[in-house]
Amino acid sequence: MDQGSIARILKQVSGGEDEIQQLQKALLDYLDENTEIDASLVFSRKFYVAQWFRDTTMETEKAIKSQKDEDSSEGTHHAKDVETTGQIMHRAESRKTFLRSIIKTAPSQFSTLKMNSDTVDYEDACLIVRYLASMRPFAQSFDIYLTQ
């Protein structure tokens, strides 16, 4: 991955969100901007929003399950694990709130959400998609599957 380009995109995209959320917003803005050129981008946008929402839900469920498993096996709370689970839950809720706001936005209001039409071009959008895909659990565990 071209970390320099990702850093450049993050600098161009202003916002207090986390890195993943900023990249998601930049990609959604790019898709919104080009829906007049290619109508299939509307479906791509909906797919990404649904997939990200599902991923966030799965991440939350895994955090809760791992916390319950640790509690039942050890019998005591580890402050670090609880804090990590709390951070995951907080991050997941902020991402869900962001995605819900995107879902509730009518297509006619997309132009008001755009930050800067020159922020992301086609190559940057492709890079963002590859970067976000690399953050998915399957992509992260692909080497494990190959070695097995």
UniProtKB/TrEMBL annotation:
Recorded GO terms, molecular function? Answer: chromatin binding; cohesin loader activity
The segment annotated Disordered runs over 63-83
Can you list the GO cellular component terms from the UniProt entry? Scc2-Scc4 cohesin loading complex
Q: Which GO terms describe its biological process?
A: brain development; chromatin looping; digestive tract development; embryonic viscerocranium morphogenesis; establishment of mitotic sister chromatid cohesion; establishment of protein localization to chromatin; heart morphogenesis; regulation of gene expression
Entry coiled-coil feature ranges: none
- The portions of this protein that span the membrane are none
At the top level, the lineage of the source is Eukaryota
Q: Which PANTHER family match?
A: NIPPED-B-LIKE PROTEIN, NIPPED-B-LIKE PROTEIN DELANGIN SCC2-RELATED
Q: What is this protein called?
A: NIPBL protein
- Give the species: Polioptila caerulea
